[in-house]
Write a structure and sequence with these properties.
By secondary structure, the chain is α+β, with helices and mostly antiparallel strands. It contains 9 helices and 11 strands. 37% of the residues are buried.
Length: 285
């Protein structure tokens, strides 16, 4: 696995050929990503009366902190400006939005000192994102809102790019997760996993933990085994992510190798076009 720093925009095919070979692409200091970081920092800081979102966990009660996270994630999800800015980020990397489909655009929060590890979009264990949607042409975009160090980042496991794992892809059902989530109060952990899970211990000796600054964006194949790094620092991690599929990749048969995904259902219906919100399922017939 190589970490390739892109110094200029790449075509959809150029990017796909790099990440589907197992390498990571890093775009540094993109103007639209910097604008998104500043925008999100502004509305979170205003909600804290000028306080630091990274340090909020130390200054609020557990109940107030949880409510702050719920409110900020909901604000981020419902704010059209955040998605608009990130689509501009994608265009700055060379993405053709007309052939690009995405599933959702959340903000993930990993609390300082592992004080809050359950609830809405917090830590995620070892997984491949392709396990859920069963589309090997899927790719991930990931970026922090504030500068992050290795101790509160995301880890990749290059040894497992072509090495199978034992997991629950054969048995996991999305409908069961939706039913469980519907019955679970906001902020509490859903009792059924939101995606297939790993059933073995991963060798951490060659884990690669990315170090990024606000304004940097990481692009990688959704087939890469990765996980949240337990946050042992004093600062909470805020990051954004988007999973995309390029229609031309599907038509050309480009995608990462399927090493250990035994899922049967391909979920094209999760994805909407970045420009007109049309369905990927309908676009491929």
């Amino acid at each position: 696995m190589n970490i390739i720093e892109a110094t200029h925009p790449l075509s959809d095919q150029q990017r796909s050929e790099i990440i589907f070979a197992g390498d990571l692409l890093l775009f540094r200091q993109l103007p639209s990503m910097l604008a998104l970081c500043q925008y999100v920092d502004r509305f979170m800081s205003e909600a804290l009366d000028g306080g630091s979102p990274e340090q909020a966990i130390h200054n609020l009660s557990a109940e107030d902190y949880l409510q702050f996270i719920i409110d900020m994630q909901q604000r981020f999800q419902e704010d059209s400006e955040t998605k608009k800015l990130f689509f501009q980020v994608l265009q700055e990397t060379g993405v053709n939005l007309g052939s690009t489909f995405y599933d959702y655009f959340p903000m993930r929060v990993v609390s300082a000192q592992e004080k809050f590890t359950s609830g809405l979009r917090t830590t995620v264990g070892h997984h491949r994102d392709t396990w859920g949607g069963n589309v090997q042409a899927q790719c991930n975009w990931w970026a922090p809102i504030y500068d992050i160090e290795a101790e509160r980042s995301m880890a990749f496991y290059p040894d497992y790019w072509d090495k199978a794992t034992v997991n629950t892809t054969a048995d996991w059902e999305f409908s069961k997760y939706l039913a469980a989530r519907k019955e679970t109060p906001k902020g509490e952990k859903v009792p059924y996993p939101g995606a297939p899970e790993l059933l073995e211990t991963i060798d951490e000796s060659n884990a690669f933990k990315v170090v990024l600054s606000a304004g940097d964006v990481l692009n990688f194949s959704s087939a890469h085994l990765h996980a949240t790094v337990p946050n042992t620092t004093e600062l909470t991690r805020y990051s954004v992510e988007m999973r995309t599929i390029n229609l031309v990749d599907l038509q050309a048969g480009r995608g990462a190798p399927n090493i250990d995904n035994a899922g049967k259902t391909v979920r094209y219906n999760w994805y909407r076009n970045a420009l007109d919100n049309s369905s990927l399922k309908e676009s491929i017939g």
